[in-house]
């Protein structure tokens, strides 16, 4: 724990007396929402995300996070007791984050940081994110992360101890408890989304198309956002789309080009797969993997990052330095085809896990407030 000005006594209205008020960045993200006890027994109140300039009044958008502005901290420091950062600082350089830390220190507010990403999946260059972590990790009064591997990396790089907590459920409880719909055949899926920098879609799809071709009842489904075909979009990738269309034309895969899924569409898609293959070359943790665990869809995760430590899954060798090991991906796909593994979160265990996660957050906040 770093030296800091002692936090002021809690001053709360009657409705929130005894609660810990948290400025959580962001509050509306599904991970953060599911770190709360659904009954309110943790007595943690998270401030609503301030609406960014330009966002309509009906929008749920939280980015860019207004709370990262030191001026916001100066203006609202009496409204929260703890500042907890999760996501959304991609555009903040080390100097800006240093100013945020200084504002929190100025008002005696503890900083908690949950290290979701030790390598940002949205940034091809690891330098900016590492520079941000070089400010946040040493400055944090409390550190959390999701896997032992990430905690070990934090200890080795910064000499800090991070508490390891499991990722809470992503899908809502009624759907977690719903039985999977029986289906014939075997469907593997690769979702290319908008071709994030950490995705190597074509090498993965080529191996899967070759591996599944000719296997009775096997189908490869590839989804990609419509932006890949839009010359005006940042994600425009005509060469990727052309090759996928060519493979689809040869009957080696089914290609779906569409806009972003909403939650219901995403859960329907994931629940209709027997295997979801993550085509990542770098990263750390995955909410997608957690959603698959909620729904009982097996995952083939790359060897980069700490995906395999999050939940039971198949693994194949794939990283930015060495590229794709085709044989390990082929073996993972065939294992899924022949054994049909189903690793699924029991609804009662997910509920109990969420309560435990909430309790650890409450205990950390309370400890930091003395």
Structure in words:
It comes from Streptomyces pyxinae. This is Glycosyltransferase family 1 protein. With 370 residues, this protein is of the alpha/beta class. The protein folds into two domains: 14-169 and 351-368, Rossmann fold, CATH 3.40.50; 173-339, Rossmann fold (3-Layer(aba) Sandwich), CATH 3.40.50.2000. Helices cover 36% and strands 16% of the residues. The chain contains 13 helices and 14 strands. The strands form three sheets. It has a six-stranded parallel β-sheet, sandwiched between helices. Helix 7 packs parallel to helix 8 (238-249). It is globular. It starts with 19 loop residues before the first strand and ends with a helix. Residues 1-15 have low confidence and may be disordered.
- Oligomer type: single chain
Proportion of strand residues: 15-25%
How many helices?
A: 13
- CATH first level of the largest domain: Alpha Beta
Report the sheet with the most strands, covering strand number, pairing sense and barrel closure.
Answer: 6 strands, parallel
Protein name: Glycosyltransferase family 1 protein
Organism: Streptomyces pyxinae
Give a quick set of tags describing it.
single chain; about 375 residues; alpha/beta; Rossmann fold; 2 domains; 13 helices
In short, what is this structure?
With 370 residues, the chain is α/β, with parallel strands linked by helices. It has 13 helices and 14 strands.
